[in-house]
Amino acid sequence: MKKLVLVGAAALLAGLGAWALLAPGVPEGIPYEDSASVARGEDIYAETCASCHGDNLEGAENWRVPDDDGRLPAPPHDETGHTWHHPDQQLFQLTKLGPAAIVGQGYESNMPGYEGVLSDQDIWDVLAYIKSTWPRRIIEIHNQRNG
Asked: pLDDT tens across 6-40, in order?
């Protein structure tokens, strides 16, 4: 009986894992080659992100130096920043939950989480727009981080 319960539990976990990976609306990665996703993302970025991260993804001036409140200004999302250093799922979670929730341990950030503000698809679209602007070399490096 114990063995049957363990086998059942393992099957359930495997099924839930497969569902999470294959759930409708959840891309396998940032859909940066999907022109419709990129176009939607560009519009959402302009409305939601550009005021801090810049119209051209350039980030805030002196983004590596903490402000008077001790928080780092918004980094660039172009190739000069560190966005492309993070794998797709981490970028998604940072956007959805906010850096403070991801880092924890009392870390404070000016960037809020966008859960409840943007849909998951909106977040993937914004990330698609951002990634679509990177040089091919950076895209290839970033793709390896997801491998």
From this structure: 333 333 333 334 334 444 445 678 999 999 999 99
Distance between CA atoms of residues 135 and 147, nearest Å: 19
Q: Name the CA dihedral angle for 40, 92, 59, 128, rounded to a multiple of 10 degrees.
A: -30
Q: What is the CA radius of gyration of the chain?
A: 18
Q: Which of 43, 73, 41 is nearest to 58 (CA)?
A: 73
Q: Please, which residues bridge with residue 118 across strands?
A: 115
* Residue 123, Cβ density class (10 Å: 0-12 exposed, 13-18 middle, ≥19 buried): buried
Cα 131 off chain centre by: 10
113: in domain = yes
Whether 98 and 113 have beta carbons less than 8 Å apart is answered as yes
CATH number at residue 109: 1.10.760.10
| 111 located within any domain | yes
> Residues 59, 75: contact at Cβ < 8 Å?
yes
pTM, two decimals, is 0.81
C-alpha torsion angle, residues 34, 116, 43, 39 (rounded to 10): 10
